Automatic annotation (TrEMBL), chain A:
Organism: Albidovulum denitrificans
Protein name: Peptidase M48-like protein
Chain residue ranges for the region called Disordered: 337-365
Pfam families reported for this sequence: Peptidase_M48
GO terms classed as biological process: proteolysis involved in protein catabolic process
UniProt entry keywords in alphabetical sequence: Hydrolase, Membrane, Metal-binding, Metalloprotease, Protease, Transmembrane, Transmembrane helix, Zinc
GO CC term (a single one): membrane
UniProtKB/TrEMBL annotation, chain B:
Short name of any one Pfam family annotated for the protein: DUF898
Name recorded for this polypeptide: Uncharacterized membrane protein YjgN (DUF898 family)
Organism: Albidovulum denitrificans
Keywords noted in UniProt: Membrane, Transmembrane, Transmembrane helix
Keyword Transmembrane: yes
Transmembrane regions: 20-41, 71-97, 109-134, 215-234, 246-267, 301-329, 341-366
Domain of life of the native organism: Bacteria
Length: 380, 412
């Protein structure tokens, strides 16, 4: 196909001058050297538009017309002159499309790249500062100023929620109440924390559930699941895990982390917006961020636990053994995706510690250990 | 120039579903590939298309916003919101903790839930703020016949008025809803401009009670239903009989019908409040619009559109399900476990359904409703527009970014 001929003579078009709300009929033709487009109103006013500055509006609904405007670097949101020329003549449209190569060009104002980079940098910096400096610092400060009673009440509420979540339908109260078992557990606790002030009155409970886990809630309350006692190969394993949770209590981790989570909730999903998968991505991002907070806290609690075990003369081999056994399940994913450090590394550190320990004796005698394992057994 | 011989001009809507669908599908795809960043450009393209689909006497409005300014405005909003939300949420949570007790009764449990929702009230003023700003941006980026629309600053004034009116409406159990609707719309209209000419909202707030009629009928039915149920309950204490359960049944049916009536009545209210407010909008001393959208048509669009969307998505999911089942069968035949290809396929399916649902919603619900509103709009006195002069460019710094970040505002 050859280039369409210059439309013979002048074509009729509609013109909005961008000064008043009037549509003016104009005649339009290219100048002799083809570098200018001449627009003439019915009153005889002439406008000269440079061909290489002509642009067409994009994404327009009407396929039978094009709306032309001029590239101009001042004034508007887009670098466009406010005047508009609407052409409906099919031949003329074809001619414009072929003869003005820049018709579909997207222009931006000068300095745009710099502006975008500047704002992108400022926004990123503000977010990082907020999420990783201000919120953690403020959470730590507030956690330190929360009255212990308030913390304890909040922690009880969290405990009840966890109980409610793991409970199977129809099951009664999950808390195990065998007095001999509780006495044994408390003896273990007393030996671990002897001579230390945690700032809390430590309260231990056991939930009758098969999960191999333990957790600390705000207010110095620690919950051990029955599954952990069932799977433990000796009292020192339980003592090691308990020492670790006491480490969290000493550092007020549960409260600090709850406050941080409250502060950062929703910020990432706001950035990603309501796009497909956005919610999932935001949830994953929030998880990773929280994991990085908690990983440090876990490593610290481990160090604290080793100190406690050492002070109480309990072998760290128990804790090492526990980490060794769970590492098969926990270390399938790289460390940065996990809320805890890799178990293999934690086991290694506990092993190292055990190697340096002097005399140790088991954290519970055989009778107490048997009583602890039976803590969830219903009374006769 | 408008043809002066025709005193009124009815708008037409020329947008097609196929063009919009292509645009929306492409937007969805790019948005996912760019982790959400493209959505500002995507939204801008959709608006350009929809604006240019309206035809008023051969003149089409133009949307002049750009994706870039929208993206920049969003960055500004995110910085402000991240700081505000982070601090407010953290501090509210901190004080909320003081009220948390181990729930011993239902009342305490309810109170704790209420405490959690306090943070919502912290965002609410910002959401209202965002809505005003988004409307201002939309006005500032709309042109007709080459002349800019515009809106004055005043978002904070709008925020406290909206909260006060909203509270009043809640306190009066919705009786003063027309008052809220009228004064808030008047606040916005009285700050709106076309070129150098200002709009004025005329009319009275009591004029909106006509539009409320079906809501009131629905509520009356609900009250009647409740009365019937209470009567049945009281009488049941005295005697026993099957006629009582009949009364209770009537009560339940009445309540159900009343709720449905009130829900549709609320839609009727929205449509007719819009009609009243548009008909009483004044530019250059004249009532220049006549708006005649119909509630029935909008309900029809909702019903037909929902059916069409469900059918298309359903068929698509069936096809994908068949492909996945075939792949699973093939991998089992070769003895291998389902490979990563399977999970990729399922992820792709999820994204496809999501994109398609968004695009179909635009094509089968949003565009037809916009089209109906456009096609029932008449410009009663077009000749006066000739005298309107251009207004200055409004930088509108946040470009609707707060609305984008908080996910409030218009459907498009």
């Amino acid at each position: 196909m050859t280039a369409p001929e210059v439309p013979s003579g002048k074509i009729a078009a509609s013109f909005y001058d961008g000064l008043s709300a009037r549509r003016q009929p104009v005649l339009v033709w290219p100048s002799e050297d083809q570098r200018m487009l001449v627009l003439e109103t019915s009153e005889g006013h002439q406008f000269l538009w440079q061909m290489n500055r002509l642009r067409a509006l994009r994404d327009q609904s009407d396929e039978k017309s094009i709306t032309l405007t001029l590239h101009s670097d001042e004034g508007d949101e887009a670098p466009r002159d406010p005047a508009r020329l609407v052409v409906t003549d099919p031949l003329a449209i074809l001619w414009f499309r072929r003869m003005v190569p820049d018709l579909g060009k997207r222009d931006v104002h000068a300095g745009t790249v710099r502006k975008v980079l500047l704002w992108l940098g400022a926004a990123t910096a503000a977010m990082v500062l907020m999420l990783f400096v201000i919120l953690p610092a403020l959470s730590d400060y507030l956690a330190g100023h929360l009255p212990v009673e308030t913390e304890t009440a909040f922690g009880r509420s969290v405990m009840r929620q966890v109980e409610w979540m793991v409970k199977e339908e129809g099951a009664g109260d999950l808390t195990c109440t065998n007095p001999d078992g509780l006495a044994a557990l408390n003896r273990m606790k007393d030996r671990l924390i002897e001579g230390r002030d945690l700032g809390y009155d430590l309260q231990l409970s056991v939930f009758d559930h098969k999960m191999v886990n333990a957790f600390a809630v705000p207010g110095g309350q620690i919950v051990i699941f029955r599954g952990l006692l069932d799977k433990a190969e000796g009292p020192d394993e339980v003592a090691g895990v308990l020492a670790h949770e006491i480490g969290h209590v000493a550092a007020r981790d549960p409260t600090r982390i709850a406050l941080r989570a409250a502060g950062s909730a929703g910020i990432l999903s706001m950035i990603l917006g309501d796009v497909s998968g956005g919610t999932a991505i935001a949830a994953a991002g929030e998880y990773l961020m929280r994991a990085s907070y908690t990983r440090d806290a876990e490593a610290q609690a481990d160090r604290y636990a080793l100190g406690l075990l050492d002070g109480a003369g309990i072998s760290a081999e128990g804790l090492a053994g526990f980490f060794d056994r769970i590492s098969a399940d926990t270390d399938m994913l790289p460390e940065y995706t996990s809320s805890h450090p890799l178990s293999a590394g934690r086991a290694q550190r506990a092993h190292d510690q055990a190697g340096m320990q002097g005399d140790t004796r088991p954290s519970l005698d055989d009778d107490d250990w048997a009583a602890l394992k039976a803590i969830c057994a219903k009374g006769d | 120039m408008f043809d002066l011989k025709s005193p009124a001009v009815m708008a037409r809507y020329t947008g097609t579903g196929s063009a919009l669908f292509g645009l929306a599908l492409l937007n969805g795809l790019f948005t996912i590939l760019t982790l959400g960043i493209y959505r500002f450009w995507g939204k801008t393209r959709i608006r350009r298309y929809i604006w240019s689909s309206v035809d008023l006497g051969g003149n089409r409005p133009e949307y002049t916003g750009t994706g870039l300014e929208k993206f920049l405005g969003f960055l500004v909003a995110v910085v402000v919101l991240a700081i505000y939300l982070g601090l407010v949420q953290l501090i509210l949570f901190y004080f909320g903790m003081h009220f948390v007790l181990e729930p011993k009764s239902e009342a305490q449990a309810l109170m704790q839930i209420a405490v959690v929702y306090i943070s919502l009230f912290a965002i609410m003023p910002l959401m209202i703020f965002a809505r005003y700003r988004a409307r201002r941006y939309m006005m500032a980026r709309t042109r007709f016949m080459g002349i800019r629309f515009g809106m004055d600053k005043g978002a904070w004034g709008y925020v406290w008025r909206a909260i006060a009116h909203g509270a009043l409406t809640v306190v009066t159990l919705g009786i003063l809803l027309p008052r809220q609707t009228f004064w808030l719309e008047k606040y916005k209209t009285d700050r709106s401009w076309y070129g150098d000419q200002k709009f004025t909202q005329d009319g009275r707030w009591t004029g909106l009670y006509g539009a409320m009629r079906h809501v009131l009928i629905g509520l009356a039915l609900v009250v009647l239903g409740f009365v019937a149920m209470v009567v049945a309950g009281v009488m049941a204490q005295g005697s026993s009989g099957e006629d009582l359960s009949a009364i209770a049944m009537i009560g339940i049916v009445l309540t159900f019908i009343g709720l449905l009536w009130a829900a549709i009545g609320y839609l009727y209210y929205r449509v007719h409040a819009y009609r009243y407010l548009m008909d009483n909008t004044i530019l250059m001393g004249r009532r220049i619009f006549r708006a005649e959208p119909r509630t029935g048509r909008i309900i029809g669009i909702y019903i037909l559109g929902s059916i069409a969307i469900s059918l298309i998505i359903g068929i698509g999911m069936l096809l994908f399900g068949a492909i996945i089942a075939a792949m699973a069968a093939a991998s089992q035949a070769t003895g291998g476990a389902p490979g990563p290809a399977m999970f990729v396929l399922i992820a792709v399916l999820y994204l496809c359904v999501f994109i398609a649902a968004g695009a179909l919603g635009l094509v089968f619900l949003i565009q037809p409703i916009i089209a109906h509103f456009a096609e029932t709009l008449t410009l009663t006195d077009p000749s006066i527009i000739d005298e309107v002069q251009q207004r200055a460019y409004d930088p509108a710094a946040d470009a609707g970014g707060f609305a984008d970040a908080l996910d409030v505002g218009a459907a498009i």
